[in-house]
Design a protein that fits this description.
CATH class of the largest domain: Alpha Beta
Mean pLDDT: 87
Strand content: 25-35%
CATH architecture of the largest domain: 3-Layer(aba) Sandwich
Radius of gyration: 22 Å
Order of helices and strands: EHEHEHEHEHEEEEEHEEEEEH
Strand order of the largest sheet: 2-1-3-4-5
CATH topology of the largest domain: Rossmann fold
């Protein structure tokens, strides 16, 4: 999910942005503000991934807000003034939406932000270890997930649940498919319905295994391999 904020002193513009955001499943709109000073107070504490930011506002302009941030999120400028486009380019914002803009143009800008965020995540993880992420599609989105964040994987009807501390992903995938993506030295299948990370195992017996977050049964078909791995 992309954690987003919308900042605009015009109520109708904020209403439109809120409606557009509600149509995109991957957007989590965590804050909507018509006061630029109030919004600035919340940006650093909420740490959004993306801000839809009006440029021309009283008290603080969008440009002043962008320049004042120590940790810069992705920014899409929204404005009725075309002359600010060059400024947006110089600030390395994702895009520049000229009011009035339609939903199609909004989606195009958001897609750029999503691509940039995913690229940044991949580079960050790859700087540590290329093998530390898996990639899959979920709800029409490309997800790049660090392996260390996976708490467990559970079969769920025609889906699987990949559970992390902050979010649960439910891609249309079989347990066999996800098992092929997960490195066998780090993950083990203990039941028809469960795959768990080995380094999160706290205790185990012939009937069950307990990790940091869950206790699951050990299936008969997997018990031999499981105990062999645990005793290596």
């Amino acid at each position: 999910m992309m954690r987003c904020m919308a900042i605009d002193d015009e109520p109708l513009a904020l209403k439109l942005l809120t409606r557009y955001c509600s149509k995109v499943p991957s957007i989590n709109l965590i804050g909507v503000y018509n006061d630029s000073v109030e919004a600035l107070c919340y940006i650093e504490s909420l740490e959004p991934d993306l801000i839809f930011l009006d440029i021309h506002m009283p008290d603080l302009s969008g440009i002043q807000i962008a320049n004042s941030l120590n940790k810069k999120p992705l920014i899409i400028f929204t404005t009725a003034y075309e002359q600010y486009a060059l400024t947006g380019f110089e600030l390395d914002v994702v895009d520049y939406l000229l009011k009035p803009f339609d939903f199609e143009r909004f989606l195009k800008a958001y897609a750029k932000a999503e691509e940039r965020l995913q690229s940044s995540l991949i580079k960050s993880v790859q700087g540590k270890n290329v093998d530390e992420i898996i990639s899959f599609k979920c709800k029409y989105q490309n997800v790049h997930l660090p392996l260390h964040s996976i708490l467990y994987v559970e079969a769920f009807d025609n889906y699987i649940k990949i559970v992390t501390p902050n979010e649960t992903y439910m891609p249309v995938m079989t347990m066999k498919n996800i098992q092929k993506l997960l490195p066998e030295e780090r993950f083990i299948r203990v039941h028809n319905s469960y795959i768990i990370p080995i380094d999160k195992i706290k205790s185990f017996s012939r009937e069950k295994v307990t990790t940091d977050k869950i206790q699951v049964p050990v299936g008969r078909a997997y018990s031999k391999e499981f105990f062999k791995r645990m005793n290596e």
